Recover the amino acids of this structure.
């Protein structure tokens, strides 16, 4: 047979609370009154004796205490929640079989193209407009000077073409910016995936079940400690303290 587990240091406050409860029970109070010892000094003496014999008293509830320790150890070893599963972003999603995977943190080619389109939508009309203004200005000057008429016509044609390109690219850029704004506005509520908003955890009843099992085992140990250990010890000590007084009473009656 294995020896019963000794009372651990973190459980001594529970022992002291159970002892305090036992000293306040009606039976112990009545026994103290019959003895004629109702002062705090007698209660403190009983309490000190019980604390000295705490290990011996605890052995009366050794099975319940061992079960309580097992439940507490199991609850401490089993985590109440699992680590949150990392959400896969668009760039970190697994690539199809055979496709080269981009390194972590590197922007994908599609993301680079999407980032380049707004810049082109702004730069292309500006460059085309500047070119159109330069070609039209040079062509007009050459035509006014009546020199290099063919070059002036070519510059004016290039200027008109650049102006047309500027107008078309400006309209396309405005349409692209409007479409991007609408897309961002509609996708703003769903920019955080469900896996990121609600990371996976164990069901909440798992932790509560472990805590309830530990609390049940603790209550069973404290009841057994109170009724099978502390109260019998206090009654025995009160009976032992009453025997000398009875012997003295008998000797006094015999002498009279």
């Amino acid at each position: 047979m294995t020896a019963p587990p000794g009372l651990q240091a973190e459980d001594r406050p529970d022992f002291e609370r159970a002892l305090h409860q036992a000293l306040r029970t009606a039976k112990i109070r009545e026994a103290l009154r019959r003895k004629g010892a109702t002062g705090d000094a007698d209660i403190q003496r009983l309490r000190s004796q019980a604390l000295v014999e705490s290990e011996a008293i605890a052995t009366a509830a050794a099975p319940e205490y061992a079960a309580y320790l097992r439940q507490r150890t199991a609850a401490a070893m089993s985590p109440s929640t699992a680590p949150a599963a990392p959400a896969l972003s668009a760039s970190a999603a697994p690539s199809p079989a055979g496709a080269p995977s981009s390194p972590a943190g590197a922007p994908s080619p599609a993301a680079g193209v999407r980032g380049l389109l707004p810049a082109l939508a702004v730069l292309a009309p500006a460059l085309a407009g500047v070119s159109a203004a330069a070609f039209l200005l040079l062509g007009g000057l050459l035509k006014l000077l009546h020199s290099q008429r063919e070059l002036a016509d070519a510059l004016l044609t290039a200027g008109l073409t650049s102006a047309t390109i500027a107008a078309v690219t400006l309209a396309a850029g405005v349409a692209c910016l409007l479409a991007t704004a609408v897309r961002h506005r509609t996708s703003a509520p769903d920019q955080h995936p469900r896996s990121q908003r609600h990371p996976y955890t164990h069901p909440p009843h798992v932790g509560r079940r472990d805590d309830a099992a530990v609390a049940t085992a603790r209550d069973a140990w404290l009841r057994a400690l109170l009724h099978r250990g502390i109260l019998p010890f206090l009654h025995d000590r009160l009976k032992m303290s009453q025997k000398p007084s009875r012997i003295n009473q008998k000797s006094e009656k015999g002498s009279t």
Residues 81-95, 190-206, 245-256 have pLDDT under 50 and may be disordered. Residues 87 and 197 are 10 Å apart (CA to CA).
